Amino acid sequence: MKLTYLLPLLIVLSTASCSTAQKAQMVPQAEKLTQAEYDALKPEDSESYAYTPTAVTPGFMTAPPSDAVVLFDGKDLSKWHHPKHGYGGRMDQVEKIMKLRATEQSYTDAKWEVKNNSMIVVPRSGAIETKQSFGSCQIHLEWLSPADEGKEGQMYSNSGVIIMGLYEVQVLNSYENATYPNGQAGSIYKQHIPLVNASRPPGEWQTYDIIFNAPEFDVKGELMKPAYITVMHNGVLIQNNVELRGPAIYIGQPYYVAHQEKLPLILQDHGDKVRFRNIWVREL
Ligand code: MG
Predict the structure, then answer these.
(1) Which CATH number is 173's domain given?
(2) pTM, rounded to two decimals
(3) C-alpha of residue 24 to centroid of ligand 1, in Å
(4) Which residues constitute the domain of residue 138?
């Protein structure tokens, strides 16, 4: 490698290690005590009563628990609409859309079909988004890839759960259907390959259980904490608290752009008749 290529890399690496060291100093650490102080410690000193966890009634199987916001119960699309400004495939598009969305609330009715207790993407009718906005949350949804249609790769049942309209958990038929691994079902699109492929065959219902921790920005818009995400696919852990590098974009490398604490959840129309049902969210 030529030195001209190496120098910027060294500068980046030294800057990265410097900021890592600064972060490490900011993490509060317990003090080392004297022997006498250790001997005086009681176990109850480290008990916390900061809050008592609220009792909730767990749902049977995958039915919504008592404190969930139900976004789709099989009946209608009343919790959804179609956004005029949806999501971007490149960072310049993302930035443009975010500005438009912040200044111009514009949407029309969701046009997806509701049939047999599920909602079905109507190709080219556009993405749908929740009327309610969410930040950190737990999401449950069920989806189904219709069998075959002679499709393959990214064209076989592509959709997506785009959290905050920015961070996509890929929906795709990945049962015996190869594609780039960081774009297969359960990938954090173009950022994290799933740990395993827990896909069921087309024609069978599948589940996603997602834990999303929203990114945090300071008043100047500087990133204070990146987004983290955990995903269970059909009950199998496939993303273990992975750190996001920014929005899930199609082309190029992502970076964070400051945004509101809560934003709508988007489901993608990628031209395939993917079905969804039993969608609920618990705010964290
Ligand atoms: Mg997708």
Answers:
(1) 2.60.120.560
(2) 0.83
(3) 36
(4) 3-22+48-283
